Amino acid sequence: YPEYMIPGVMSDGTDEERMEAAKEFCKVLLDREGVLEAKPSADGSVIATMTREAHKKSLDDLKASIDETFADYFDDGDESDFSDYTYNDDMTVFTVNMDADYESPYTTEAMLFGISAEGYQALNGVEKPKVTINYVDEKTGNVLGTLTYPDDYDKIFSNTEDTLREMDEID
User: Fold this and answer.
1) pTM score, whole prediction
2) Which residues have C-beta within 8 Å of that of residue 52, sequence separation ≥ 6?
3) Which residues pair with residue 38 across a beta bridge?
4) Residue 89: which residues within 8 A CB-CB, separation 6 or more?
5) How many C-alpha atoms does 54 have within 13 Å on its Cβ side?
6) CA distances (Å), 161 to each of 10, 16, 39, 146, 154, in order?
7) Residues 33/18, Cβ–Cβ less than 8 Å
8) CA-to-CA distance for 73 and 94, rounded, in angstroms?
9) 44-68 residue pLDDT tens
């Protein structure tokens, strides 16, 4: 049976915290049908041996979770420049339809798209995940801007960090 690397989620934690999170995730994985083995790694990732059916179900479940997260985020009642978004099956390209008067593609939303797609691609066996995010004018269909994650991560994170500071969410 094939092995799949599942990236860790506590990249900012200590080695012990990452390992503990990976061990806990292994327990959850081993309860799933078709998962034969799950081994934690020091970086917080998990190497899981599973049937192809279990892997497909894991990908489907992850995509459903990502869709739910996006729906919660974009339907929270706050005004947004984005009208909707789509992505391709392997989550390498997102198309974000929006008002043409946007200020910058380097937003919290871009980070959300990038991190989500990166996790999906990693679970799907992509060694160096990458996602392209195209911002499109919802009225004309013209591309307003494009960024690539993780290549543009520093610009995305810098803008997000500034926004969080303005909201007094971080110091």
Assistant:
1) 0.76
2) 2
3) 48
4) none
5) 18
6) 18, 26, 34, 20, 10
7) no
8) 16
9) 889 999 999 999 999 999 999 999 9
